[in-house]
Fold:
Amino acid sequence: MKLLIAVVQDKDSNRLIQALGNRHFKTTKLASTGGFLKEGNTTLMIGCEDHEVETALDIIRDNCSQREQMVAPISPMGGNADSYIPKPVKVEVGGATVFVLPIESFFQF
Structure:
């Protein structure tokens, strides 16, 4: 048995949860916050049998697209904020980060 921990952008989470549910994967949704852009993420915990891992990864890949987004940089710390003119920059957002962990035992009460 495996535990997949998938960190996805909030915009992709509902579509992904629906797609996983359609294929009978049970998921637990946790709210989380990203470190780089400080935007909301969703962390999903997905338990599955070893032979189902590739199917789950395909569903995640198909429903979590990467895209470019314009963001305004944060003003520099310790510098003169009056002379700082933020210029929006393009960053890649979306996609998914997935960890696959072995599960030694599983209990449901």
